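new request in #modeling-help
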Amino acid sequence: MPDTQQDGYMTADGRRIGPVVMEMRNITLRFGGVVAIKDISFDIREGEIRAIIGPNGAGKSSMLNVISGFYKPQEGEVIYKGARRPPMKPYQVARDGIARTFQNIALFEGMTVLDNVMTGRLNHMRSGLLGQAFWWAGAQKEEVANREVAEKVIDFLEIQNIRKTPVSRLPYGLKKRVELARALAAEPKILLLDEPMAGMNVEEKEDMCRFILDVNDEFGTTIALIEHDMGVVMDLSDRVVVMDYGKKIGDGTPDEVRANQEVIDAYLGVAHD
Ligand SMILES: Nc1ncnc2c1ncn2[C@@H]1O[C@H](COP(=O)(O)OP(=O)(O)O)[C@@H](O)[C@H]1O
Ligand SMILES: [Mg+2]
């Protein structure tokens, strides 16, 4: 792997990995007396699928929240697109090209699939209520364009047949896919997935794996994901960060972390669901 951040490289399976797009530098995050993240540094390259693994309570979701800008670490800095990222509101993060899904599904259960996916477009809508009242032609044009993106994502994730179905009626695996659709509708540069396959059966997992790879391949989306299924992690990811008790205990290719004794002792050697 090249060590200059400007260079990219080709993976064995012919995907292009670009330069570093985000860098975490000495991040420490505390909740009162609990230290969720202890002095962790790592980077994410453009086009990469970067996994974060580790036991429950290791600090993985907290780290994803730091990457997304939702949590502000007490120490350290996040370098995004070559500059130190200032504290941001969630909508600013979304405008800056970062979208996410949650460990616990966060959809509007009473709304249809299409309407849920449309909420992923909110950051792309310039005209608010006033705009719609006074300049409805422009707002209408925007609405049509946004709907087009939403429909494209729905086609891409093969959920056309349920686009008018209220989310509450869907099985768990499909809800997870709708959540992915909403995140994709924002057309993110970086997509953050918190346990996208947790609770899924084998078939649902295979589908989700395929869609994650397709998104990465088709749109060049950089992906950071938390996942417990080691088979999935090893198959999907280019590089893996391993966390344990808030500390980083491993970082490298799947083969490298698999051979790391500290990682084996803390995580890989024990059974996980
Ligand atoms: N919002 C919060 N308030 C207080 N403590 C939290 C909060 N979020 C996470 N923690 C604590 O931080 C630690 C790491 O949690 P988390 O990031 O959720 O781990 P993981 O996702 O690896 O299971 C845990 O001890 C957890 O209880
Ligand atoms: Mg978590």
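bot summary: The first helix runs from residue 60 to 67.
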